[in-house]
Amino acid sequence: NSLRASQELVSRFPEDPTSWSQLGRTKIFLSSFDSADSAFYEALRRNPDFPGAKIGLLGCRYARGDLSGAIDGLRNLLDQPDLNDLARFEGLIIWNNLGLAGLLAEAGRCREAISVLESAEHLTGGGAENKLKPNMGRGHVLLRMEKYAEALDQVQDLTNYTPEPSLSIREASFVQVKALVALGRLAEADSIIAGLKGINSGVSDKDEMGWGKWAYLTPILMAEVSLARDDPAAVFAYLEPILGWRRVAHWWAIDMWMNMAAAHRMEGDHAKAEFELMDLLSVHGGHALAHLQLGSLYEEMNRADEAIKSYEKFLDMWSEADD
Predict the structure, then answer these.
(1) CA separation for the pair 56, 164 (Å, rounded)
(2) How many CB atoms lie within 10 A of CB 218?
(3) Who's near 221: CB < 8 A, 6+ residues apart?
(4) pLDDT in tens, the chain (323 residues)
């Protein structure tokens, strides 16, 4: 459906670089990276300075597993003096798992990520997101640093920073639940999810304005808690009905693959766990921790050569890790 919609957009507005960039992003989700590159180049042919297409090409690098290339390319793009503050803000914060900050965190360069988020707060043009997104980003980076109590503190008051409180509550709930699960405070995580159900009760997964992604956040978080309770059957029950959506999902859908893999591994089904991790990497090849988990899985399966390759890929991505 997403591909048909993107193709229809290009058909209706063939000279609009935005249409071609949307098609490129859809092709990335389908792991059609050469076609994605072609779509982004079509956008640049119509507007050589179009930032969405330039960032999209870097998205292909990340999807192919070139994390350092995506980081360097995005940093160079954002350093261009003619880039306006709004475009720079979106590149720092929003694109591809919280923008440059998110990619740095993927590479274990968490202190750099925090510095990027701090710089974004001083840009103009981001509106309410100038406060919301950097604070949310810090919450995610603190999760990566395993500083769970600090992550909770970081997102606690985010509803004050936006005229649409439900948006920030949804965003904050992801950080809150993951931190609470890591701290073993599962009853509190249940309470956060219960509140989220009320907010999402009026959201359709077919919402034409793009809000449909929020309808899936609740089962993703319920699966997270179920995994902590060693209940793989519940993980499957929550996630299997929505697996078809994850390739065109918001960034937090990465956890759908990771938790499905962990649940299959918990049941001793190594083949299905391998499939989930490989499928994740076919779209998010720059997700370093997936390579680490795949190496661990191969080691458990006595596939030493493949385990070494996966570990080497992870270590290459984390060669400049600062935490």
Answers:
(1) 28
(2) 20
(3) 173, 174, 177, 189, 192, 193, 196
(4) 678 889 999 999 999 999 999 999 889 888 899 999 999 999 999 999 887 888 889 888 988 989 898 889 888 887 777 666 656 656 665 544 447 888 898 899 999 988 888 877 766 554 555 566 777 888 889 999 999 999 999 887 665 544 455 556 777 888 899 999 999 999 999 999 988 776 655 544 444 334 345 678 889 999 999 999 999 999 999 999 988 877 765 566 789 999 999 999 999 999 999 999 999 998 889 899 999 999 999 999 999 999 999 999 999 999 999 86
- Specify the 3-state DSSP secondary structure of 260: helix
Q: How many Cα atoms are found within 13 Å in the side-chain-facing hemisphere of 147?
A: 14
**Radius of gyration in angstroms for the set of CA atoms belonging to the chain, rounded to a whole number:** 19
Per-residue 3-state assignment (H helix, E strand, C coil) for 137-199: HHHHHHHHCCCHHHHHHHHCCHHHHCCCHHHHHHHHHHHHHHHHHHCCCHHHHHHHHHHHHHH
Burial of 186 (0-12, 13-18, 19+ CB in 10 A): middle
Cβ proximity of 285 and 65 under 8 Å: yes
CA 113 to chain centre: 15
Q: How distant is the alpha carbon of residue 218 from its chain centre?
A: 16
Instruction: Return all residues near 319 (Cβ < 8 A) that are at least 6 apart.
Output: none
